[in-house]
Amino acid sequence: MKIGLVIDDGIDSNDGVQQYVKTIGKWFQQSGHEVMYITSTGKADHAPTYSVSRNIRVRFNKNVLRVPLGASARQLRAILQKEDFDVIHIQMPYSPLLGGRLIHVLPENVALVGTFHIAPFGGMQARFSKILGYVLKPQISRFQSIVSVSPAASDFAKKAFGIKSIVVPNAVNAKAYAKNSKKKANRVVFVGRLVHRKGCLQLLIAISHLVNNNQFTDFELVIIGDGPEKQALQEYINAHSLTKQVKMLGRISEHKKQEYLASAQVAVYPSIGGESFGIVLIEAMAAGCVTLAGNNPGYSYVMKKCPDAIFDPFAYEEMAQLIQKCLTDKNFITNLRSQQSYLISEFTVETVGPQILDQYRYAIEKIKLKAHN
């Protein structure tokens, strides 16, 4: 099967959607399929990549996102004619200026599959998405199959875009995180963009409770990531005498991130909303971290079989107590890690990849049936 994976954003970052397309793309290749990427910018290191646009930065969903400028319909048509794909798989929602233009010139004999990735954070983002949904509505019927990465994403796809979808979760290469590093019993780690909705400030408030109220200081928190709140977070660390316990590493390589996760006892992700899934949770669990997650719908879906690991990001004292318990209570740690080890299997690329291929085959059969009729 010849597969074209389409993403409006650049392929060269390690954000969630990029991880998704690269993870399934590599697995498809290993399974004997031919894979190519069509993206705004960047190059994948494992497959041919067509970069067809440039990006501008905009704020959306409490994040800074890259949005593509107009791709050339002529260039897109030439790519499609040259490569003769069996299926095009577009990440949704997509820009009318890249994904939309590609669909406009897509030959009728090419199957079209979509994966819907987002859940909104706040009313403005929901309203903007409904406007985008209105713009994209005429093209939705062109898709033979649309999946969403979680119930939260599926519900939003229905409400904002009128899209009916089934849930096929994100895929993670769990083997890449299962390193044999020695655990540091007192290491806590946070990985993510330093933006409001990721909840790093909420985590620091809980850490301040541990240090300044509970007088519990036998641990270190490693913060991995960069973003517009970095300076404010550092100022909070300094103002609350947390410099001995908290280390901010900034952005690091994927390999280094895997090493830190493999060495940590606990991973904490206190996102306050806007999460459709939670790839970072699976990565941390695959690395053997006891993983704690904020109770937003996307994270709650991933952690549904491990309710003891879910917390309210604004209940700072409870979060602090939960972190301390994960650092000191051996029975609790063992039980939680056992539950989470079992949970990982639902989200590995070896489990999810075949489900996506089934959607490709279904879409191709629908195209053939339509042509026959």
Structural write-up:
The structure is a single chain. This protein is of the alpha/beta class and 373 residues long. It folds into 2 domains: 2-171 and 348-372, Glycogen Phosphorylase B (Rossmann fold, 3-Layer(aba) Sandwich); 174-346, Rossmann fold. It is 43% helix and 20% strand. The protein contains 13 helices and 15 strands. The protein has helices spanning 16-30, 73-83, 99-105, 123-140, 151-161, 200-213, 230-239, 254-263, 279-286, 297-302, 316-328, 330-343, 349-372; strands at residues 2-7, 34-39, 49-51, 55-60, 63-68, 87-92, 111-116, 145-148, 166-167, 184-191, 220-224, 246-250, 264-269, 290-294, 310-311. The strands form 3 sheets. A 7-stranded parallel β-sheet has the order 3-2-1-6-7-8-9. Helix 6 packs across helix 11 (316-328). It is elongated, with a radius of gyration of 21 Å. The model has no long low-confidence stretch (mean pLDDT 91).
